[in-house]
Specification:
The structure is a homodimer of 205-residue chains. Chain A is mainly alpha-helical and 205 residues long. Chain A is built from 11 helices and no strands. The first copy, chain A, binds a DNA duplex (30 and 30 nucleotides) through α3.
Chain lengths: 205, 205
DNA sequence: TGGTTTCGTCCGACCATTTGGTAGGTCACC
DNA sequence: GGTGACCTACCAAATGGTCGGACGAAACCA
């Protein structure tokens, strides 16, 4: 597990990381603006005053959680995807890695995707920049994949795959299947969506 | 276009509907909790006091917008889908109708899907109930479709199709293609995801 | 060893601002 | 002169954030 950005002065930051993690959970559940610092303090068993010993402010907390999520994306999605050159397996790895992430640690990921507009403009730019690297990696791979084996529009295909994967955490809770099965089937659906050609699918097109 | 629920007393409700529509736009952009009644009043060219002539409260406004969105779903997604018996065309119609809705009038739809937890419990139950009708319609059709022509888990497939469609409004803005092309291609991708069988897709499964 | 200073951790009380919502009045028009 | 449509001024509550200090354990010193 990667670490959260360090609070001001703290040699042993286990408590800080724990605070960030627990804050991510409650922020994911209630949403950033609907969650008060008092709520967060309760969730981490502190008073508001005590919480501010670890946190510089509400914005900084949100930004830190998002940076943590971005780190995970870069390490567990982008890196494995870029290790292969074949466009098809690269897309598959991107989808697979992302789905695993959404299932294993959904809270920071959902905060990242759902609370972007709650960021102050400066932070927003930084986060968007790193998010675009991930999106563009997917887009580029889909572009070569689609150019030779499909008639899909690249932007449409990219958007669809992105939201397909980002939505996993919204419904995975109500599913009996285990994580492995979800990852396999989501990945298969994504690849079929990009490359599949059934007569039925053609009929509606 | 269906009408918004009527405000207290109002014989000519064009202004009221306009207020609901404009409020939906700004609520979609900034999120419910991040939008103050003052912001909404500005967006509809009123003062806060004037706004309350039409609106009973912030919660009531949110609930009204969601009811409007639900009406649209029932009329433009559920009704066409239930007109056919064949499971495959029923799923296709559900996806198609939903995608059209997300493109034609995204604001109330996004408010409906993104602000559920901002509802007071009583309203929440009512909305969830109507949403479940839509989801179950999709799920039941996918169930028979998948039982005979795929090995997908019904819940996984349903969740994936739902979030695929719900996410359209998030990326459709940055796409050059026109709405018709988006609808056709999203529908095709959805059906391919459910029924497609490419060798590549099997390889990752 | 016993006292005292230091330091990291955390609390309670407080503050300025913003929030959703209300009350009373104004003004045009029938 | 009554009524619908709207505004100004205001309120109580909640919010993000601050500050001085309390408490305990370690470090230091005798």
């Amino acid at each position: 597990m990667a670490s959260f950005p360090k609070p001001p002065t703290l040699n042993d930051d286990r408590r800080a990381v724990d605070i960030y993690r627990r804050a991510a959970v409650i922020l994911r559940e209630r949403g950033f603006d609907a969650t008060s610092m008092g709520d967060i303090a309760d969730a981490v068993d502190l008073t508001k005053g005590g919480l501010y010993y670890y946190i510089k402010g509400k914005q900084a907390l949100l930004f830190a959680i998002m940076c943590f999520a971005l780190e995970q994306v870069e390490n567990q999605v982008l890196k494995p995807a870029l290790e292969v050159d074949d466009a098809e397996t690269r897309v598959a790895r991107w989808v697979e890695g992302h789905t695993i992430l959404m299932l294993d640690d959904p809270a920071p990921m959902m905060v990242l995707y759902n609370e972007l507009e709650a960021l102050k403009p400066e932070h927003r730019l930084r986060v968007d920049e790193r998010l675009n690297v991930s999106t563009n990696t997917l887009r580029d791979a889909i572009e070569v994949l689609v150019a030779e084996r499909s008639t899909l529009d690249v932007d449409i295909a990219t958007g669809a795959i992105r939201t397909l994967v980002e939505g996993v955490a919204n419904w995975s809770g109500g599913v009996r299947a285990d994580h492995d099965a979800i990852v396999r089937q989501v990945t298969r659906m994504a690849m079929d969506a990009l490359l599949g050609h059934t007569e039925a699918a053609r009929a509606v097109a």
